Amino acid sequence: MIESWVINDDSPVPVSSEVVLEALRARIDRGQRETWLASSSGRVLAFVTNTERAMVMLLEEEGDPGEHAVDPEAEGSSDGFVLSNEQDDEYPDEDTVPIGEAFRLVEHIVGTGSWPTNARWVGDR
User: Fold this and answer.
1) What pTM value is reported for the model?
2) At how many degrees (to 10) do helices 20-29 and 99-112 cross?
3) CA 69/CA 53 separation, integer angstroms
4) Binning pLDDT at 50, 70 and 90, where does residue 20 land?
5) β-strands 97-98, 53-59: how paired?
6) Do the Cβ atoms of 24 and 17 come closer than 8 Å?
7) Mean pLDDT (whole number) for 65-79
């Protein structure tokens, strides 16, 4: 079975790897910096951005600590990660990636179901 993904609070129509970035950009343009995608197999993909960097998390199921993309050489921290409940989070830059890399990761995961082979990520389990 091929895994399909939907944006949790949008249409129940699946998003493909070809359109997921357009959907993320449109949400960011509307001020929605937090996006959760659910897969047909029960997995969850989270994307939270401050428009410069993003946290990308892949969970096996809701409640799973999962795994997240990292930028081990990054220093400092960034704020402005505004969640849907208006909470403004700050994360160490090593636990987020530049927005372009985040888009690449989300597109690949939605298209293939896994991290790109050259992605840097850590398990949080």
Assistant:
1) 0.93
2) 140
3) 11
4) very high
5) antiparallel
6) no
7) 95
Using CA atoms, how far apart are residues 56 and 108, in angstroms rounded to an integer?
12
Tell me which residue of 33, 40, 54 sits closest to 113, measured CA to CA: 40
- The DSSP bridge partners found for residue 38 are 6, 44
Beta-carbon count within 10 A of 48 CB = 21
Measuring CA to CA, how many Å separate 28 from each of 32, 50, 59, 119?
Answer: 5, 9, 22, 23
Long-range contact pairs involving 58-65 (C-beta distance under 8 Å, separation at least 24): 58/109, 58/115, 58/121, 64/125, 65/124, 65/125
| pLDDT for 1 | 52
Instruction: At 50, list the tokens.
Output: 């401050």
Upper half-sphere CA count for residue 91 (Cβ side, 13 Å): 24
Nearest alpha carbon to residue 116 among 124, 100, 104, 125: 104
> Cβ distance 34 to 80 under 8 Å?
no
